């Protein structure tokens, strides 16, 4: 498969002083292109397809939390990975979302070039949109390779970002209940 992206990776190898013809690198441009397509496949996905009508009627209005969803994204400044976890809570209002769909929503937005703040907001707004919930809370905690492998080279710092919508934003008690259930 000789796509444009494959050719560009060949060029990168030359540019960094490598020999794309040496044995170990022969298939590398193609592999790297395939990996990059995978890591950015979120651009080709739509929320409706991801959710696939897995929104079910329910009369519960109690808080639901999906915790520790792994997250692999890439920062839009350096195109280096940031890796962490996402926690999502919502207050259903007549509808609940299929459990796996929270992880699919996280992946859809994570597999794009992102900054963590925007990623957090996009996940929260998507959950709000598909569930019509009374409130949505999202926390993302992640380590950024651009801060670890290069730049300031800090190995232990972690970024935490949160977005609170609806009741989670307006009502301190609800927010505190969420944080308590998360173990914060
Ligand atoms: N707020 C935010 N900043 C991020 C995120 N990912 C990377 N950054 C930051 O984006 C900034 C880009 O800063 P620049 O000064 O333009 O780039 P740089 O010279 O490579 O910066 P250094 O990383 O400080 O070496 C850096 O401070 C990064 O740490 C993110 O998800 N959110
Ligand atoms: Zn970065």
From TrEMBL:
One of the Pfam families matching this protein, by short name: GTP_cyclohydroI
Catalysed transformations (reactions): GTP + H2O = 7,8-dihydroneopterin 3'-triphosphate + formate + H(+)
Keyword Cell cycle: no
Biological pathway: Cofactor biosynthesis; 7,8-dihydroneopterin triphosphate biosynthesis; 7,8-dihydroneopterin triphosphate from GTP: step 1/1
Keyword check for Nucleotide-binding: yes
GO cellular component: cytoplasm
Gene Ontology biological process terms from the UniProt entry: one-carbon metabolic process; tetrahydrobiopterin biosynthetic process; tetrahydrofolate biosynthetic process
Top-level division of the source organism's lineage: Bacteria
One MF term in the entry's GO annotations: GTP cyclohydrolase I activity
This protein's UniProt keywords: GTP-binding, Hydrolase, Metal-binding, Nucleotide-binding, One-carbon metabolism, Zinc
PANTHER family (UniProt xref): GTP CYCLOHYDROLASE 1 (PTHR11109:SF7), GTP CYCLOHYDROLASE I (PTHR11109)
NCBIfam families in the record: folE, PRK09347.1-2, PRK09347.1-3
Quaternary structure and partners: Homopolymer.
Family named by the database record: Belongs to the GTP cyclohydrolase I family.
Listed name of the protein: GTP cyclohydrolase 1
Gene expressing this chain: folE_1
